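Morning. Coffee machine broken again, so started the prediction first thing and wrote up yesterday's gels while waiting. Chain of 665 residues, entered below exactly as on the submission form.
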Amino acid sequence: MAQSSNQPTDLPVIELSSMPANESANNDHTTPATIAGVSLLTDFDIHLFRAGKHYKLYEKLGSHIITHDGVQGTYFALWSPNAQAVSVIGNFNHWDRGRHSMYERPDGSGIWEAFIPGIGQGEVYKYYIQSRHNGYSVEKGDPYAFRWEEPPRTASVVWDIKYEWNDGIWMAERRINAKNPQPWSVYEVHLGSWKRAPESGNRPLTYRELADELPAYVKELGFTHVEFMPIMEHPFYGSWGYQITGYFAPSSRYGTPQDFMHLLDALHQAGIGVILDWVPSHFPGDIHGLIYFDGSHLYEHADPRQGFHPDWQSYIFNYGRNEVRAFLISNALFWLDCYHVDGLRVDAVASMLYLDYSRKEGEWIPNKYGGRENLEAISFLQEFNEAVYTTYPDVQTIAEESTAYTGVSRPTYTGGLGFGMKWMMGWMHDTLKYFAKDPIYRQYHQGDITFSVIYAFTENFMLPLSHDEVVYGKHSLIYKMPGDEWQRFANLRTLYAYMYAHPGTKLIFMGGEFAQTSEWAHERSLDWHLLQYDFHRGVQRLLSDVNQLYRTEKALYERQFEQGGFEWIDFGDWQNSIISFVRNGLNPDDKILVICNFTPAPHAQYQVGVPAKGIWREIFNSDSTEYGGSGISEDGELRAEAIRWSARGFYGVSRLTQNGQLRAD
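Came back before lunch.
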């Protein structure tokens, strides 16, 4: 997460008109006045909206280019129930607040409408709202706009988002494979800092430039998906996209909506899925956004004990308001529908679940039962997941949830929240804490590396090494590792190998794949020059190989959410800091033996139990010379003999380097 650009707003606030600098083709007063009686909304639409069950509001509210009685123009619809008057302003009328008035529907829905002839693609606009309360008036962007001006400009843009997709094969295979176990290896990306164009003032790459480079790179590394940190329009670049004003618009910093579609299309054609970060937990206090929208707390709670987020200086959605729930769920389905997105990673779920999140005594209001759970938010998340999986059963929702809340990735009919997966934050914290220790002391902390298996199957877990772990003085992954240069890289390779052997899906933040040395900074490119050095290329090659292993070896993913997919062999050899276990596929004969040595000390004759006698063939070793390691190995295989060892019926003898993974042949 990152903080908002704004401190809490003293409300009400009156904003003076601010004319964007760009000019429209229609920049005189000849634009006809609004035509009354034009509507895309039916009585049934209004019924669903007021009940909070209209999940395609983006087809009805906002701005839409239409033809009415042979006249082409733009239809505008805005929910503003506490407004006394609303008008559409823009370059086309010189931001004249009195020229293009909207008409309030007589059905009590609070929706205002207008049809303006001659207004089309690319017109910038805002709504001028005069409230019924306190003489408040304000200019607002359109909550449902498909495009916004590039910040720091704040107007919405009339835009048609039609696009000719070329990802039919991907979408068909996604439907076919939806019910089968799938490997999910995710490459997390911040679009503005993955790679920049130094020849053009060090600007970020555009969506189309990224489409020329990112799919090939991700495919070469073997990741199955990319996850984009929020790309929805946000005024403050330093928020990393987590402070959103334009929920239905990809950021104009990198191009048009169609340009972003082109990027997603290119990824799909390369066989790579796309996950978007989605932020229904809070929104910023920028006055052109959702805050105090019509002179009332329309989208947020009025009481700051419920409606203001102290950590991020932002505002919390009122999940108990039907129209707000419909807005958010429509937004989620919009990205799945119009942009062919394959998954949504929901940010800051823990902050939504608990009323006392990051609050002291007296700073929060208990629920109706006196508890700390946010019952309205829980109900909303359940409804969100039900709506997503009912409409798109072949996508995934993923929760960033850091507490012990029960059933995050369990079905709603059992009382769960209904997510497909949950980030395994406990694994991340324990693992990084363990690897930060000098290997000589790891023998006293064996529990840090083994504890995760105790709860590994209570949820459908994704193992994250995300952007949050490489910022704000936390150091890059390579500099979290102890020792000299050789030891740091050996430790990092071991961490990645252990991560991919551990049950659960995987996520690695960009730069980690080649051992970025500096912390991530959103205003500059990754340190691609490091790939001229052998150690960095070795880590990159290891990630490519371990991704390939994960995708092809069914024992590593078929039962990654099931207890039966994992068996301990030995977790008690703390003196040597060694653990060994077996990963099982659906086929009883499909097994992979994993042996992890978390110290630099090799073992020439190390005894380990195995589940079957015969020849075991080495298929991966993080200490291989091709990755920058020592190359000590068992020359490809070992023989397991029928001699009882511990609780297992057989044992093998293996030389152990920093990490080895072996499979029955």
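The chain has 13 helices and 31 strands. Going to sketch it on the whiteboard this afternoon.
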